[in-house]
Amino acid sequence: MADSSVPDRALAGVRVLGLEQAAAAPLASHILADLGAEVIKVERPGSGDVIRGWDRAVRGLSTGFVWLNRAKESVAIDGKTPGGRSILRRLALDADVLLTNLGPGAIDRLGLGYSDLVDENPRLIHCNVSGYGLSGPYRDVKAYDLLVQGEAGVIATTGYPDAPAKVGIPITDIAAGMYAAVAIIAALYQRERSGRGQLIDVSMFESTLAWLGYFPQHYWHSGEEPERVGMRHHYIVPYGPYLASDRRYVALCVASAKDWETICRAVFERPDLLRDVRFEDPPARRRNRAALDEIVEAIVRTRDSNEWIERLRAANLPFGEVRSMAEVLSHPQVVARSTIREVDSPVGRIPTIESPLRMSASPVALGGLPELGGDTERVLLRAGYSAAEIAAFRAAGAIGPTRVRRSPANRG
């Protein structure tokens, strides 16, 4: 009988083997782990996931590793050794999901491609996250976020007219990781009906193309390349942050004819703008963006940000501020919803951002961060290996040395 005191988790009982590194696949398994899946993260003995070495800002831990790897088990296995490959195969055949974003061709060289495993584990869901996908002329091209932002058109839409810019967060990794997590969950649901797994092919490039939104439509139907508009919206004016008299930005969003009338009358106190034919509808306001932005900038400079926010709030119009990181992390909404939580780690309790998935019948329990290889012995024992076999693997260099956790992961 199930323990009624243990909260139900959406993906409880799902085992994920992650041959993952850096950001894209680890983000997908991060989502799955928050939802209750058992995620076994395979790392290189000695060095671990490449992201562990990017910085040491979290008391010696990497910020990227802390972001993406809570609630996972870490096993240190050398897939270049015969023993390591045999362990990986056994773990894969015992998994529900094999998730990987190793370099082009690496998973096949390990003998862990979908075709290598499907006959023995037909229920396996094999998710391959890559830069450009499993086919096509760019199949073997190595991919990083900045490179894909350029290849997929994001940089062309971002920045100012005289200076393109990349998006500050690794958006192509995040897009691919989110699509991979969605695809895996969908495949698990389909498997309940079909009894079979499948191969999932998710690329950073195509995931980012899918996020280009309305830009391809403008190009197909108007022949229009997107201009770079800085902090403004490409097609809606006024929309974006404007500098108030106290040197703080106030973000406006005029998304409808009603909003335009309301902001002119009740917020700006400039009903004359409603009679100006240059600004009579969204296309006209876009054509005359420079003139309208100059007017709005001059208006907003006359009062401080608090007054504009109160006016916008009273008029029931959308508003926002451009906050510093310190202000974001102490945001009233963050405090009210307890969005920052502490988890265990090898260096003690550290803060992390709560999962945005708030589900009434499937609470997210945040797990801690694993020590490199700290779960190797336990995972191998669970897979059926004896203590003597594990010692032999260690002596042969197939697995990393024993590591003692200083602060065990909280499995929720």
- Could you say what the CATH architecture of the largest domain is? 3-Layer(aba) Sandwich
Distance between the termini: 19 Å
Largest β sheet strand count, sense and barrel closure = 6 strands, parallel
Instruction: Please tally the β strands and state the result.
Output: 13
SSE arrangement:
Layout (H helix, E strand, L loop, with lengths): L14 E5 L4 H11 L3 E6 L19 H6 L3 E5 L5 H12 L3 E4 L5 H4 L4 H4 L7 E6 L14 H7 L2 H4 L1 E2 L2 E2 L6 H24 L4 E5 H7 L4 H8 L16 E5 L5 E5 L3 H11 L14 H6 L1 H12 L4 H10 L4 E3 L3 H5 L2 H5 L3 E4 L6 E4 L22 H7 L4 H9 L17
Helix pairs in contact: 1-8, 8-9
Question: How would you characterize this protein structure?
Answer:
Mean pLDDT is 91; it is low at 404-412. The chain has helices at 24-34, 63-68, 82-93, 106-109, 114-117, 145-151, 154-157, 171-194, 204-210, 215-222, 257-267, 282-287, 289-300, 305-314, 325-329, 332-336, 376-382, 387-395, and strands spanning 15-19, 38-43, 72-76, 97-100, 125-130, 159-160, 163-164, 199-203, 239-243, 249-253, 319-321, 340-343, 350-353. It folds into two domains: 15-211 and 337-395, 3-Layer(aba) Sandwich (Rossmann fold), CATH 3.40.50.10540; 239-322, formyl-coa transferase, domain 3 (2-Layer Sandwich), CATH 3.30.1540.10. It is elongated, with a radius of gyration of 26 Å. The protein contains 18 helices and 13 strands. The chain has a six-stranded parallel beta sheet with strand order 3-2-1-4-5-8, sandwiched between helices. A three-stranded antiparallel beta sheet has the order 9-10-11, with helices on one face. It has a two-stranded antiparallel ribbon with strand order 6-7. Helix 1 packs across helix 8 and helix 8 packs across helix 9 (204-210). It is α/β, with parallel strands linked by helices. It starts with 14 loop residues before the first strand and ends in a 17-residue tail after the last helix.
